[in-house]
Specification:
mainly alpha; Hypothetical protein af1432; about 65% helix; binds fe (iii) ion
Amino acid sequence: MAAIDDIMSLFETKGSAEYGGEKVSQLEHALQAAHLAKTENAPPNMIVAALLHDIGHLLDDGPEAAHEHAGHAWVCQHFPPEVSEPVRLHVAAKRYLCATDAKYLQRLSPASVQSLHVQGGPMTDTELDAFEEQPFYSQAVSLRHWDDQAKTENLAVPGLDTYRETIAALLKT
Ligand code: FE
């Protein structure tokens, strides 16, 4: 269970860092995203993906633009693709939604609009086709919606410990 302890201590030591110019911390953002997944009756793999989607920010290495890759590199060591792939694709999902949903771009927070530029802007048609060929692209889109909503200041949601069993059940043995 070393991976669970790693997750707990990463959030403990670095979870209070601000979440990319938003009014919530990294830990608050992760807990709100996981709680949104749970509230929408998402399966356990998606609850864990929501909880861990930005773990790349806590791992220190890599520039902001590539946090999904740092996160994926870690998550895929410990969890199956149904957890790690939505994590890998969650930034691409934002670029996908910006290209396919006119209202989505209007709803993005100012900080998220700013990072969109760094992330490559809305997808081109070729990129859209390639994205839709990814086995977990629709899960990544679901994750993206929770990600975008998980920015409420001072929202009371269940704590990290409540996810222990769900995490443990999905860990690779
Ligand atoms: Fe996020």
